[in-house]
Amino acid sequence: MIRQLAETVPTKHLPEDMQLEFKRSLGIGYIHALNCQFNDIPEIIDNAHKYLKDRYREYSLWLFLSFVFPAVMVAFAIGLLMYLKDYFNLSEVTKKEPIHL
């Protein structure tokens, strides 16, 4: 039952090296089953699940940072340009007479 659950975990979106490492760890469980070493199999499958869960976190963090970092840099550059434009008064439009009431 646990082995079947481990085999159905989707891994296609992960890089190939992570997929192979997960499948390798499940393969070690198969080898133990063929050698009638059934006591170690649940621990091996749990380790494979833990490995995959850790890789999911790493991969999602990488995706988040790879998309957010360029947006932050663009926003920073625009903010810096706006600040410098105002600081150096590059625009003559900003020089207006004060309004007296």
Strand and helix layout:
Blueprint: H1 2-7, H2 16-34, H3 41-88
Helix pairs in contact: 2-3
Walk me through what this model shows.
The radius of gyration is 28 Å and the shape is rod-shaped. It has 101 residues and is mostly helical. Helices cover 72% and strands 0% of the residues. The model has no long low-confidence stretch (mean pLDDT 76).
The count of β-strands is 0
Largest sheet: none
What's the mean pLDDT score? 76
Question: How large is the radius of gyration?
Answer: 28 Å
How large is the count of helical segments? 3
Shape by Cα distribution: rod-shaped
SSE order: HHH
Helical coverage, percent range? over 70%
Share in β-strands: under 5%
Query: Which structural category do the helix and sheet elements fall into?
Result: mainly alpha
Low-confidence stretches: none
Q: How far is the first residue's CA from the last residue's CA?
A: 83 Å
Keywords for this entry:
101 residues; 3 helices; single chain; mainly alpha
In brief, what are we looking at here?
Helix content is 72%, strand content 0%. The chain has helices at 2-7, 16-34, 41-88.
